[in-house]
Each structure stands twice: as C-alpha cells, then as structure tokens.
Write a structure and sequence with these properties.
Layout (H helix, E strand, L loop, with lengths): L1 E4 L7 H16 L4 E4 L6 H9 L2 E4 L2 H5 L5 E4 L6 H10 L2 E4 L3 H15 L3 E5 L5 H7 L6 E4 L2 H6 L7 E6 L5 H12 L4 E4 L6 H14 L3 E5 L5 H13 L3 E4 L15 E6 L5 H14 L1
Parallel strand pairs: 1-12, 2-3, 2-4, 4-5, 6-7, 6-8, 8-9, 10-11, 10-12
Bound molecules: FE3-S4 cluster.
Length: about 280
C-alpha cells in the first residue's frame, strides 16, 4: 500500500513564511503582537495564535488606536499608507509580505513615477489588489473579466503598465492582455502571476491520475480547495474532500493500492501530516 503526498500540498512559500514570522515574533517575545488581517484563512491556525497572545486587527481604525507593540503584515501585503501610519505612530512593523507581491509594489511604484497609469488584472476587492493600488502614485484601474477588458477605456494619450494579481489564472490573463493590447495604448505588460497555485493543481492532477483513492484536505469555503477537489475527481472517482482527520471515512479495500493526498493553500502542515500518518497506519 502506497501513500503519495503532494509536495505542493498546503501553504505556499509566501504563506508559510508569514506564519513562521509570527511564531518567530512570539519566540522573541515582541508582545503585544498583532497581525493586520488573519495571517492565513484557517481558523485553527488563527485560534492557536490567539491563544499565544496574537491578536488580529481588521481595520485601519484599530491600527490607528495602537499605542505600542508589533504589527505583522501578512503575505498579501498592504498599501504604502499603512507603513506610513505605523511609522508615524512609532509602532514596530514586521513585514511578512510575500516577496512576489512586494515585487509588484516596486513595479507599480516605479512605473507610476515614470508617468504610467497602472492597470491591475485581478479582483478589486481582494486585499492583495487593494495593497498594490496603495503603491500607485498615479491612477490605477482594475479589471477582472473579459467583458471588463473589452469595455476598458482611458484617454488615448495615457501610458499604461499592466500587472496581475499573483493568483490570477494565466490563460485568462493572456486573453485579457490581448484584448487590451489591441486598443492602441502605449502599454507595457508584466506577468506577475505566481506559479504556486498552478503547480499545486498540476501535481494534484498527476497524483490523482495514478491513485485508487485521493484525499483533498481544506476548508469547506476555500475556493482553491474546491478547485483541487474538482480536478482530482475528474482523474479519480474515489476522491474525498475533508477538513480534518476526523472527517475521513475511507474504507480499507483490497482494490486500493495507492492513496494520494493533497491540500488547499490554507491547510496547515500539522493536519496534512496527521492524515498522512493515519492513512499509512490504516492501510
Ligand atoms: Fe503564495 Fe506568494 Fe505566490 S503568497 S501564492 S507564494 S505570491
């Protein structure tokens, strides 16, 4: 009986780095410690951190009312005004912005200074996109759908710089760039998509195609987990979606020779390892 765990299961590099940063701050005793927004979309992790004294701040007003402590910026990043606010107040900032997101901040800052307006391909309500807009010194625009790309217009004399939200779908990005490029603006395009999501999906597809049963671990509301489940189910009929080990109802059967495991982007390593160990013992 073989158990195959996807190498890309769970946190991506940037989220793991952000979570590790919080634990380092706890070890160093930098209290009171706050994260600006939940460090990862996983209640278990956030609760565990809360028990260790880490509080989540959700609004700018809450940040403004701080008198002391350490504020950790999560992987999604934030706009420049948040750095300025904390500096003005003399509050220590620990920056766990993913380096791939930080790179986009630097691009839009530089291109804005060069007189280009910024066009972000992504979801305007996503904190990462809000953060990127917060580094644009000139006007910025956001388009998310093919239709929005078709309807997008600015003054023909405008110079544009196009970037993407890191988790955007590459094919859709390419199609939208093609539509916008035909409009005749002076335009530069930088593909700032991070490959972590796609790599996780490709590996899940490959493992599922070679497995007799496949387990996908992740939150019930997590859209990337749902997507992983769909991909795996297409390759392996015996695909199970669970949130934690207790949900697993995998019947031992002689026909199961290989079980594959993957997990969504906000699933902690601990839960993945528990499932891996359990499946290894049971079969
Ligand atoms: Fe993760 Fe950073 Fe990519 S947060 S999805 S590694 S941009």
């Amino acid at each position: 009986m073989e158990v195959k765990l996807a190498k890309t299961a769970g946190f991506c590099f940037g989220v793991q780095r952000a979570v590790d940063t919080v634990y380092t701050q706890i070890e160093e005793g930098a209290f009171p410690i706050y994260t600006y927004g939940p460090i990862v979309h996983n209640e278990t992790v956030v609760q565990e951190l809360e028990e260790q004294g880490v509080r989540v701040l959700s609004t700018k007003e809450e940040l403004s009312s701080l008198k002391e402590g350490t504020v950790i910026i999560r992987a999604h990043g934030v706009g420049k005004h948040i750095y300025d606010l904390l500096e003005d107040k003399g509050i220590r900032l620990v920056d766990a912005t993913c380096p791939f997101v930080r790179k986009i901040h630097r691009i839009v800052q530089k291109e804005g200074a060069n007189g280009r307006k910024i066009l972000i391909i992504g979801n305007a309500r996503h904190p990462e996109v809000e953060g990127i807009r917060g580094w644009c010194s000139t006007s910025s625009y956001v388009v998310e759908s093919i239709e929005e790309a078709q309807n997008f217009t600015v003054d023909p004399r405008e110079k544009l710089c196009v970037v993407s939200q890191t988790t955007f779908n590459y094919k859709k990005f390419k199609d939208m760039v093609e539509i916008i490029s035909k409009k005749g603006y002076d335009i530069i395009v930088l593909n700032t998509i991070c490959s972590a999501t796609e790599e996780r999906q490709t590996e899940a597809r490959q493992i599922a195609s070679q497995s007799d049963a496949m387990i996908v671990i992740g939150g019930s509301h997590s859209s990337n987990t749902q997507k992983l489940f769909e991909i795996c189910k297409k390759e392996c009929e015996n695909t199970y979606h669970i949130q934690k080990l207790e949900d697993l109802d995998l019947k031992a059967s002689q026909s199961i020779r290989c079980v594959g495991i993957t997990a969504g982007a906000s699933t902690p390593k601990k839960i993945i390892e528990e499932v891996q160990k359990h499946v290894g013992i049971k079969f």
